[in-house]
Amino acid sequence: MFALDAVPAPSQRRLAVRVTNDAIRQIRGGHPWVFDGSIVSVNHDDATAGDLAVIFDADRQFVAIGLYDPASVIRIRILHKVFVVVSSSISPFLIVSLPVWTAFSANC
Predict the structure, then answer these.
(1) Number of Cβ atoms within 10 Å of the Cβ of 86
(2) Residue 65 sits in which domain range?
């Protein structure tokens, strides 16, 4: 028996999550977690650990995606987010979507 045989299958559920404006600012600033007090609403009451949480802003624009854990103070661990890069040479605003680990590796 392999160690991975005991790992449950990935969840197929996607949660739509709304968070506070401060949490959105923190996510866009590079913070990798969303704490339980920052959650405004979740579209499923029976969310389980490992469900994918899609985080939206007040205008229903994609902010980030992460893994949800209802039993932890760190409610969502960010996996991927949208970066907004201001560049005058290409266009006034260029929206780039990069994995979070790319941003962290650039800072190391």
Answers:
(1) 9
(2) 11-81
